[in-house]
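queue> holo job accepted (zinc ion)
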Amino acid sequence: MSPSGAEFIRQRKAQIAEVDPSAVHEVVGNGVAIIDVRETEEFANGHLPGAKHVPRSYLESRIEGVVPDRGQRVILYCASGQRSALAAYTLSEDLGYEHVESMTGGITLWKDRGYEVEVPKRFTAEQRDRYSRHILIPEIGEAGQRKLLEARVLLLGAGGLGSPSALYLAAAGVGTLGIVDNDVVDLSNLQRQVIHNSQRIGVPKVDSAEESIKALNPDVEVVKYRTRLDATNIMEIISGWDIIVDGVDNFPTRYLLNDASVRLQIPVVSASILGFDGQLSVFKPYDGPCYRCLFPEPPPAELAPSCGANGVLGVLPGTMGLLQATEVVKLIVGAGDPAIGRLLLYDALAATLTEVKIRRDPQCAICSRDPESISDAEMGVFPDYEAFCAAAG
Ligand SMILES: [Zn+2]
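queue> job finished
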């Protein structure tokens, strides 16, 4: 017979290490990672000083970003010590953390002992005003807005797709936006890359984007990567982000990004554009198909749009970039049905949006396997790019 819920928790508690609040109190601020596994709303009402917030429902996907070193001492707590006990079991048994403890009695006992609680800043009057139209929507509300302000979203490219999505994510109050881009603003960009302007021609796109974002919403912190994403830097750059917005314009990077994001289990909101046509899908590792499930092989070189300059309707990346931004907000606040396992095809000339179902490939070279088993050497396996484009003629 299966154990009751209470019995199951008792069993788990017997399998993990527990620590009394008095012992935790002695190590606060001493290089021990103290992790609050409660929900956003509970964390917002007060937490242990210096505690990092990793809700239990995001434990597997976020803990590495917060505690990259599996040898570090980690203390988990919740309200009463139950959720943290289950989370401690996951961290030590499934994720290989070596020194994990759960605080007995949770923050309730901590408070009873009279220890200090840090209360995060409430919305300022300005924030209440700025985000009032979000707070009015039940699917977002104050809790959702807080999640947006806590969220970390990485944009690959501050070009056609990245420009509108960065602007709107900043306006929506996504607290931390990372931008990876190696280019400078060029006059030919301005037909669609609306985060830049005529005064900033020749300025690095990451700097120009930061200036526009800061002017729009000072709540947003911008993390700039003025570099090109490649196999040597991708793991370092994308680790610790909640969601990636893929605006990359070439196949090799797209495959590399897919493999790295599956390995780190970070969802990617992906879009591409050509002429009057746009495509969009959300690749959430192990929840739906990955990019390789959809396109196991890159298209023939002569059909690859990324080998040279291609024409595109200036408005189209705006449409597609905002569909991406919409999916990002939905994922952060947990509203609606994200486009996981679906490919949306937008035909601007016909004014139609078509949906194609896509499934996980049980034979997929990447996502059919455990993330830990994907090696560096296997990531981004792709024909030589120069040769690939040369073959396109
Ligand atoms: Zn796959």
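queue> The radius of gyration is 23 Å.
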